[in-house]
Amino acid sequence: MLKLFEYNWQVRKDWLDWCDSVAEDELLKIRTGGPGSILYTLFHIVDVEYGWISMMQGKTFPPMPPSFKDYASVQKLRDYSASCHEGIAPFVYGWNSGMESLILDDQNESGELEQFQYGEVMRHVLAHEIHHIGQLSIWSREIGKQPVTANLIRRGLFDR
Amino acid sequence: MLKLFEYNWQVRKDWLDWCDSVAEDELLKIRTGGPGSILYTLFHIVDVEYGWISMMQGKTFPPMPPSFKDYASVQKLRDYSASCHEGIAPFVYGWNSGMESLILDDQNESGELEQFQYGEVMRHVLAHEIHHIGQLSIWSREIGKQPVTANLIRRGLFDR
Hints:
Four Helix Bundle (Hemerythrin (Met), subunit A), 5 helices, two-stranded antiparallel ribbon, mainly alpha, homodimer
């Protein structure tokens, strides 16, 4: 589990660095298919990971969810990602198989109560980020730039 | 590990079913950003999963890799995916933590010998499919169709 989170965090950092070489209007342009712009997609990735893992940590959310307009630049987003990471990394590093079937109660957007296993939520968060990063790779080519590699191998994650 | 493979297999099936409702010229049109067309991307996903897992199974490859032109329709691709699945599913279902650090020797495209841990290869294959499915979701919106949901929750993968 941890290795896939480390992969996501490394890839996300690579994409934030990639953003440094792209004009801000390209980063903020609303695009077809994903959640919005390139920067909004990265914001959404951070936000969703933080939201789900905070719930499993039993944290109370701030009264209002963060607003993208407060983070709509590469450096602000980098800081936001780092700050969220600090909050959730201890949970990910402390993960063990005994936590797999713990139950998270969640009220969905329709107000219904849903229950998920912690192991299900963790994998949902992992797949969520990889999926949206795949979308960024298309937009990257659309603006004529080479995307960050999605390869998990050759990233030093499994050094011996 | 297994749950994420099951997620990928279920999502892949959903995308193949989605293809049934799309004109073949749209499915075969070369698009910007991914490996090629929608059908080629699905072929590539199947091929890469089969290739890596076959190597870990110690299987000898057929002398020539499969050619996309032999599988360039939804039903042929569905059959190809099923046939590859039959070959590799026993390995995935038989996975255990003792296999994590086994070493796979691989000759890369430049002819150099590389070594990967089995656990690294398994996660690479998982991330590979999710990444490319993210690309399909963009193209789906481009042709005005709702994509298959990428949610891992609410798929019955963790039924209690």
